[in-house]
C-alpha cells in the first residue's frame, strides 16, 4: 500500500463519499427507530457487523485474538463504544438529525481538550484554540435554540455525551497498547465488548420491537454493512493511505450533509440558529484539525 503525502482527487472523492455515507446513516437510524428500540437496534448492528468483520478477517488471514497487552485498552474502548451508541441512537430518537449531528460531530472539541491535558505533544496552538472557541460557540448556539423542529434538551445532551465517548475511544487508542494492533482487531473488540452491554441495557428499557416494517429491517441491514463493518474499515484504510490531518479535515462535511439530508428527506425545520451553529462547528473543526 502506497502512503501518500497529500489528499489527491481520489482521496477527495472517497472522503466526501465517506462523509455522505455517515451523514445518511443519521437519517437511517432516525427512521429505523420507528421499528426497533434504539439500543436494541444498536446491539443488533454490533452483532451483524461482527459477523461480517470476522468473515473479512478470516478471508485475509488476520488473527481474531487481541494481544494480552492490549486487553485492557480493548475492553475500555468497547465499553465506550457501547455507551457512544446508547447515547447517539437515543438522541436521534428524541431530537432532530440536524441537531444531533451538529452536537455529535463536535467530538474534536473534547478530544483536543483531553489531549491537551494528557498528551504532552498535543498542546493547543492558538489556531486550534480559535477553532475550539468557534466550535464550542456552535454547540452552545445549537443547544440554546429550542424552536427548530423537534427540539429535545435530553436528546441534545445525549448527542454531546455520544461525542465525548467517541473522543474517549480515540484517546484510548492513542494512550494504550491498542494502538499497536491492526484496525480490524480494534473494531472487532469494540463490537464484541459492546454487544452484551447494549443487549442488557436494551432489556432494561422495555419493549425491543416497535412497529416493525420492511423499511426498518432494510435500515438495520444498511447500518450493519455500510456503516458497522465496511464503513469503519474504509475509514481505517483512508487513515493508512492519507495524512491523518487531511482525513480529519473532512469531518466537517458529515454534519453539513446530515443537516441537509434531515431537511430534504425528513422535512426537518432548520432555523437560522441551526444553520449558524453548523457554520461555527464546521469552521471550528477545520481549524482544530489543521496541521
Give the structure's gist in a few sentences:
The protein is mainly α and 291 residues long.
Give a verbal description of the structure.
There is one protein chain. The model has no long low-confidence stretch (mean pLDDT 87). Helix 1 packs across helix 11 (253-266), helix 2 (38-59) crosses helix 9 (214-241) and helix 5 (107-118) crosses helix 7. The protein contains twelve helices and no strands. The protein has 291 residues and is mainly α. The protein starts with 8 loop residues before the first helix and ends with a helix. The chain is globular, with a radius of gyration of 18 Å.
Can you tag this structure with a few keywords?
12 helices, mainly alpha
Write the layout of secondary structure elements.
Elements: H1 9-32, H2 38-59, H3 71-94, H4 97-104, H5 107-118, H6 126-144, H7 153-175, H8 183-203, H9 214-241, H10 244-249, H11 253-266, H12 272-288
Helix pairs in contact: 1-9, 1-11, 2-3, 2-8, 2-9, 3-7, 3-8, 4-7, 4-11, 5-7, 6-12, 11-12
> How confident is the prediction overall: mean pLDDT?
87
Tally of separate helices: 12
Largest sheet: none
Point out poorly predicted stretches.
Answer: none
Number of domains: 1
Rg: 18 Å
Distance between the termini: 23 Å
Amino acid at each position: 500500500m502506497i502512503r501518500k503525502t497529500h489528499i489527491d482527487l481520489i482521496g477527495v472523492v472517497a472522503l466526501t463519499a465517506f462523509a455522505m455515507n455517515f451523514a445518511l446513516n443519521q437519517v437511517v437510524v432516525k427512521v429505523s427507530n420507528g421499528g426497533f428500540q434504539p439500543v436494541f437496534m444498536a446491539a443488533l448492528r454490533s452483532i451483524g457487523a461482527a459477523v461480517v468483520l470476522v468473515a473479512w478477517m478470516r478471508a485475509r488471514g488476520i488473527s481474531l485474538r487481541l494481544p494480552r497487552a492490549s486487553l485492557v485498552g480493548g475492553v475500555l474502548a468497547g465499553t465506550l463504544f457501547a455507551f457512544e451508541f446508547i447515547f447517539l441512537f437515543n438522541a436521534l430518537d428524541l431530537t432532530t438529525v440536524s441537531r444531533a449531528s451538529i452536537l455529535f460531530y463536535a467530538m474534536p472539541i473534547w478530544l483536543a481538550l483531553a489531549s491537551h491535558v494528557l498528551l504532552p505533544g498535543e498542546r493547543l496552538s492558538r489556531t486550534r484554540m480559535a477553532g475550539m472557541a468557534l466550535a464550542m460557540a456552535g454547540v452552545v448556539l445549537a443547544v440554546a435554540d429550542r424552536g427548530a423542529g423537534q427540539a429535545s434538551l435530553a436528546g441534545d445532551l445525549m448527542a454531546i455525551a455520544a461525542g465525548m465517548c467517541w473522543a474517549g475511544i480515540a484517546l484510548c487508542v492513542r494512550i494504550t497498547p491498542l494502538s499497536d494492533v491492526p484496525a480490524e482487531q480494534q473494531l472487532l473488540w469494540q463490537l464484541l465488548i459492546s454487544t452484551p452491554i447494549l443487549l442488557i441495557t436494551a432489556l432494561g428499557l422495555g419493549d425491543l420491537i416497535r412497529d416493525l416494517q420492511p423499511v426498518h429491517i432494510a435500515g438495520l441491514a444498511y447500518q450493519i454493512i455500510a456503516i458497522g463493518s465496511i464503513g469503519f474499515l474504509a475509514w481505517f484504510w483512508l487513515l493508512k493511505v492519507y495524512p491523518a490531518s487531511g482525513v480529519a479535515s473532512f469531518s466537517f462535511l458529515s454534519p453539513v450533509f446530515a443537516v441537509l439530508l434531515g431537511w430534504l428527506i425528513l422535512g426537518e425545520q432548520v432555523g437560522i440558529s441551526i444553520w449558524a451553529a453548523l457554520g461555527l462547528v464546521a469552521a471550528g473543526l477545520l481549524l482544530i484539525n489543521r496541521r
